[in-house]
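Dear all,

This email documents one entry for the complex benchmark we are building for the journal club exercise. For each entry we list the sequence lines for every component of the assembly. Then comes the predicted three-dimensional structure of the complex as a token string, followed by one or two observations. Please use this as the template for your own entries, and keep the labels exactly as they appear.
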Amino acid sequence: MSGLPEPQLRLLSLGAGVQSTVLALMACSGELPALDGAIFADTGWEPAAVYDQIERLHAEFDRAGIAFWQVTKGNLRADTLDPMHRFVSVPYFTRNVDGSAGMGRRQCTSEYKLSPINRKVRELLGAKPPEFRRVPKGRVAEQWIGFSTDEIHRVNDRRENAYTTKRYPLLELGMTRKDCQRWLRGVGWGHTTKSACVGCPFHGNAQWRDLRDNRPEEWADAVDFDRRIRKGGASAEPLRGEAFLHRSRVPLDLAPIDRVTRHEWADRQLDIFDELAEYGDSDGCSPYGCRSGTSAVTT
Ligand code: SF4
């Protein structure tokens, strides 16, 4: 980027979902230029599949000589339910006393992901302990972010601080999320799933069904959490209305998660085409983002 000092470090912000896994593996194989390290912010409430993925990626980084750091601000689930903990703002779907619908502010991402990552970046750039607040002048890290071309609306080129410059290698490569999934299948990482907290209100019905049908312990955990946040969570001032994890504003175990949305149908049809593209027609002759969701908007 012109006018800015050359970065001293190249760092990947690793969520361990589809897109950032592609960037990690491309860096490990040398398909992308030398990466100095990857940082994963652990909310303490990721699904087991994400922790497995992190373990596998850590081994790949070790093999490639790329540093890996796992940072954390605490356990999002436990902190939300701890009356002694400072209020944690999660984007719940709310129903106000007058019956109108609303949504909580999404501060969990910034508090449990962005802030510990930035602290680590400042530390790596030479900020002094114990707070690692001030980065020596002129020291900058290039931060890789795994947005794919279908997520271009999430790109924000505003500089949030003087010590990082953002880079979006998947945009430079022109890769969509589907391209990333295809690429992962091609290198034996087709199992990679979205990364998000077990009880993230941004889950779509497909993710809730996956939890219910394939990961019963995580489903039970989310259902239990959903019951406990009805008044906003123990660390919140009790809500006058009610809060829910599911967008229907119905308790999660009763929510209509079997209804397939138009978006999910579109996604399924694309998947069918992808299967054909990958394996050919079985009848004969015939080849990522929290991201974790959109910004919280009060409705
Ligand atoms: S995944 Fe969902 S619950 Fe977890 S930090 Fe992100 S927005 Fe918050």
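Observations: Residues 43, 76, 90-91, 106, 108-109, 112-113, 196-197, 200, 202, 290, 292-293 surround iron/sulfur cluster (CB under 6 Å). The beta strands are 9-13, 37-42, 67-72, 93-95, 101-103, 141-144, 164-167, 242-244.
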